[in-house]
Amino acid sequence: MDPLSITVSTVSLFKEVLLVSRFIYRKMESAKDAQSEKDDLCAQFELEVLFLQSLGHVFQGGITKNQAIDTRWMNFLHRTLERMNDACSAYRTLAAEKDADYQKYSPFLNSTEHNTKIDFDVDAPLSSKKRFSIGQLLGAGGKVKDDPKWDWKWAFIGKRKFESLIREFQRLNGRLKDILPLAIAHMSPSRPDEKSAARLGLKPHYHLRSLASQQPAGVGSFLLKDKMLEVDETGPSVVVGLLSRTKKKTAGLDAVLVEYKEYAPEQSSDRQLSLHKEGLAHLATLLKSAGECDLATLPFKGIMEQDRQHRHAFIFGFPKGTDDSVPPLSLNFMISEGKNEDRLDLDQRFAVAQRLAKSMGVLHADGWVHKSIRSESILFFRSRDGRSLLIHTPYVTNFEFSRPEGQYTGEQHFVEDEDWQRNLYRHPERQGMPTSSFRKEHDIYALGIILLEIGLWEEAASIYRHQREKAPNAQLRPTHLQNIFLKSAKSRLAHHMGTRYLEAVLACIDGEFDGAAAEADFPMIFYEKVTEKLERPFDS
User: Fold this and answer.
1) Which of 26, 90, 123, 418 sits 20 to 30 Å CA-CA off 353?
2) Structural contact between residues 283 and 399, judged by C-beta atoms closer than 8 angstroms
3) CA atoms in the 13 A half-sphere facing the CB of 96
4) Is the domain of 191 the same as that of 53?
5) Do both 183 and 233 map to the same domain?
6) pTM confidence score
7) Do 437 and 483 fall within a single domain?
8) Residue 289, φ and ψ in degrees, nearest 5
9) Using an 8 Å Cβ cutoff, are 373 and 352 in contact?
């Protein structure tokens, strides 16, 4: 379809879905039967309808200011809304009989409503004063009143049907929630109001994008000056410590996680130290706000200066609901040394892989880069009772001076780094002596290596060693590691994870995105070529 046609069709689908879903909610909410369990389901469905209402504020007249980009977003919306429309189709006939708004504004009933305008009030109250019987929603019309058979039908038919609808709306709205943060850089001037932005999960992203264009506050505003820190650096995954609430240990101790940002003694000139602290301030600014943006970051507490060791300690709290008496496990440790109970099953591998891709896509869309992501940077925590590892909520750590892309990164004078374990995750342009400033494509390359590790359940170092043994005399060039990982992916990954997962990994590693990350529609390209393909095949 041409851009105008896809826009008209998408807006028409949106109007249809919102009108029918509001009708369903009002009738379910006002029904007299099965009150307690129905109320719980209605509360769940209300959240999904409110999300759709807020979505209406975003794309009245188009998602973005660029028509070519807008078409890509509209195509995604169209596919998603088609599925939502199919999910509530069983209620459409009843809506046509009973609902005045549907009768007046439905594009399916009124050809004049096939346009790009939303003529009705998307924020109309959801509650209905009129009371109905569950039987009316199950096909009894208005003829049946308090008949026990409708309680039976609700329990075995209506409830199951409504629950299925809620699950589908939650799944599909979840997809929309995934892509909306990717679009805000190019959204139309009519930014949604505060309430809608909050419902859509966009408010913190607007804030993070604004931070990317601002000069950060001085590092002093993040320093923890009146604290004492005790650390245990022997843990398998991360440095764990105890942070006093005041200078006195007796005032109470909080379990914390510690990351060190070191600088060489020869970098202690005023100018170099100033640049180092500027980098610290950028990173601290990101970490302070990132927790609200679903970037899978830890709660950031502040920075402690450790001049003797020529480093700064970044202090993080344990996530809510986790056991702070045991250290978290890194993905690298789980793959290389973990116990059988720490192995991820197939569902969990897909879920973790997609979670990481979503976080990176949003980080980049908000204007930031990570610069040092690897499997050691991915942490998993135990539940508060210590019984289970919280697999579905991995946390990303070890951000390395994640200044907004395009700003000074302190690398005009590149520093050579031959750490071979870090080079496993580095783009060929960034191995050894870097030949290029850091770009989003370099983050994406590292993500591809992590996705390969998850898919094969083998650490990158092991993959490298096995391939190296087959050609011990091969010359080690920057592209050598890349070719090793590409070969392993092409020969083994599809068998473990399927072709779509393989395609996502290859897109990250083989340079498909090189030079493309600067394109305005890149966030959606990355979502389609990587994030979306990391779903289980039968869930897509």
Assistant:
1) 418
2) yes
3) 12
4) yes
5) no
6) 0.84
7) yes
8) -100, -20
9) no
Examine the domain organization and report whether 125 and 257 are in the same domain. no
H/E run at residue 329: strand 329-330
Domain range spanning residue 399? 211-539
Of the candidates 60, 46, 45, which has an alpha carbon nearest to the alpha carbon of residue 11?
A: 60
Confidence of residue 491 (pLDDT cuts 50, 70, 90): very high
Closest CA to 171 of 420, 540, 481, 474: 540
What number of other Cβ atoms are within 10 A of residue 247's Cβ? 10
Distance CA 235, CA 221 (A): 30
DSSP string, 373-388: --GGGEEE-BBTTSSS
Distance of CA 302 to the CA centre of its chain: 24
pLDDT for position 144? 44
Helices (H), 393-459: 420-423, 440-456
298, 304, 313, 324: which is closest to 397 by C-alpha? 298
From the number of C-beta atoms within 10 Å of its C-beta (0-12, 13-18, 19+), residue 185 rates as middle
pLDDT (mean) for 209-231 = 83
Q: What is the pLDDT of residues 186-202, one digit of tens each?
A: 665 556 667 777 778 88
pLDDT for residue 440: 93
Task: Verify that 291 and 408 share a domain, yes or no.
Answer: yes
Q: Is residue 144, in this structure, part of any structural domain at all? A: yes
Residue with tokens 């020869």: 266
Are 34 and 154 spatial neighbours (Cβ–Cβ below 8 Å)?
Answer: yes
pLDDT category at 414 given cuts 50, 70, 90 is very low
Q: Is residue 178 part of a domain?
A: yes
d(CA 421, CA 437): 20
